[in-house]
Amino acid sequence: MELEHYSHPNWICHTPLKQRTKNHKEPQVIHCHDMAGNYLEDRLIHGGTSSYVYNFKYWQFIDIFIYFSHDRITIPPPSWTSVAHKNGVKVLGTFITEWEGGLADNSLLLTQQGDTFPYADQMIEIAKFYQFDGWFFNFESHFSPDQIPNLLKFLQYITQKIHQVLPGSLILWYDSVITTGKVAWQNALNPLNKIFFDGCDGIFLNYGWNEKLISESSSLAGERKLDVFTGIDIFGRGTFGGGGFQTHKALEVIHNQSNPLTSIALFAPGWTLECQSQNRKTFDLTESKYWTGRNFINVMAMSNTPWDFQNKEGWKQTEEVPPHGGKKEESWVTSFKWCKRSKVIDLYELGLSELVLNDSPVLNFSVWIKGTPPNTADFYFLKITLLDTQKNVIESYDSGILTTSSEWETVETTMANYGTGLRYISWEDGGKDVEYWGGHYGAVISSPSILLVHPERIGSISDYVKPRAIPINTLPFITSFNQGVGNAFSLFGKTLSEKPWNNLFDQDYLPTHENLVITGQTNSIHTEYDYKRMYHGGSSLKMVTSILPGRYSVVRLFDVEMSAPMSGPLNVCYVSSNDTKLDVGLVFELDNSQKIYFLPQTLSDPNCIPPCKTETEGRWTKRTFQTDSLKNLLIHHIDIILFDPTTLNTLNTKEPTTQEGTTLKGQLNLGYIEITPSLPVPPQQVSNIITHTTWNKKSTTLGEPIFDVIISWQNQNNKQTKYVLIKDEQQKLIGRAFSNSFVIPEVHFPSQTKKVFSLQVVNEHYLSSDPQSFEVSIQ
């Protein structure tokens, strides 16, 4: 059985479980992750090469994460365990047997040596070795009736012993095998499966339940009713309410606010990516729709309006597709004359009402472009116009003439707060080549995207599950709003790589709330992740807003349980769009409900703290504030305040002043927030670098020496290390290592027998060690 071989040191999670304050009256939520068989790019320690992956980020709505596959033993990849632990979420591995093929392993699992169960002991050792938090047992193969007493003893044994070895760990049982040994899903807690529930920490009920069965289950469980997890299949297979975006119908039955019946188990929420998304942008919106109810419409996909092509013979469909990793879509290559296309979409024909459109819904427009060799500096333009019923212009966007490159790039803009009267959207774009050659050597242009964020929310998880605060047991608190994916990678606002990537090890603390306006106009702010402009990692938090003169808006970002008092510097980094004077500060709401404002200017308010230092890094502004005076206070909420610095003169939230002047509309990207107990220092270099090479089979094909270079080292900073940068002789980034070893694939040695590389340790504050060069030689 697979249990006998499990030692893979690189898969050990080094992030301890942060401790949330548990509300024993609040139902728990399981996220059971089963997507396309699992062990996809998430299995790779150093990350994958696509940005279109399932990078779950709504940790505030779950308590337990189960990594599920149909392997006998499923050990959670350490990136999942690490990011879950960081957010206070427990992670379970899975043990599953299925049908006839699982019968022998069912018997083997129950092997006894005296009073012990060796395989139970080994499963406990596996959890301890890899540092996850227990097991989910799913027996889909039957037992004989005379094996049931031993099965129950096994369950009690592993539950009791894992609690001793790993305090806070869990053993959960799936509603499959009953007291006769047969596989018979009950869709309820009842006398046929209760002995297993009594022998462990909880039961995950099958999905075919109804209101009566759940009510009876809750009554039978008594004081342990919240250890019953009522299953909801998000794919809707025989599940109450139908799953998907109707999940809230099941939650309405399970999660009565005054008297919840049971806890909740969500099976396969990866449905949002598998079945509902086309690319990174639509996945972000689909996830938001499912978890928070923020609805959206894919306008371009819904529209039947045909394209009007100019110079139609210059357009040619191509097999090239953008690198967002999404579903295959049409792309076109243009020719030597301007090749233009246009369409005007009537939003009324899509079922959008005048009432909805008068609410100025947020519109996101995007298209991918690249050049065609030999000279990839081709030309492209995009014009977007919002029109009213009489086709008068409400707002417009003009990219001007852009120059493409050899890499895919997005042209993107967001329109919000543009007023009333919207009915039509006009899209016009086009491209041509720079060589003026016959044929098709011009700009390559993808299918465009128009996404409308609907102002009316739908039912969602957030309607029934209260968001959990981020447990900050120790400082620092650091976020770059990096989701662990990106279309490029940056440090300090400088792009080090333009290649798509993913790695959940690199996911930061992400906002607890989306668009939760505490002070100001509730529809005046739209937040989303921006993959084109980032300070560290692959994304920043973009805010599109309008502010009345003399007023300001406060938007809640984080709920925190900060048991570590503030003492050191607070750093905030942001960038505003070129055409706006929009400025930003932070607001801390403390445990005594007092609010502290960190603003770039001193106002007539005793709770306003100005910066002690302001710096610029490229287009980014970094402000540093001192928090020493607050060292005995604890933070409960972290908010952002947006304002026009030329008109704001008071923080009187009861009667904010309104001055004459133009409403300030603009865009701001929040790139970095850091609360640290002391001034951070750069990390030390690694030691004992060891390299060896292995022959790559491409050498035979290409007729030149090609080797894979394997590097390992020792790192005294493991606990504080975020990753190690691997660079070539020209200091170009090759990759990032999230363990103490790395493989550089397919290194060419055409004429020389040695190559020079370097390592740089980056710590949790993003400070780097000095580059550390080393040579790799071949004989």
From TrEMBL:
Domain of life: Eukaryota
GO MF annotations in UniProt: mannosyl-glycoprotein endo-beta-N-acetylglucosaminidase activity
InterPro entries linked: ENGase, F-box-assoc_dom, Galactose-bd-like_sf, TIM_ENGase
GO cellular component, one term: cytosol
Residue span, FBA domain: 283-454
Xref: PANTHER family: CYTOSOLIC ENDO-BETA-N-ACETYLGLUCOSAMINIDASE, ENDO BETA N-ACETYLGLUCOSAMINIDASE
UniProt protein name: FBA domain-containing protein
Provenance organism: Arcella intermedia
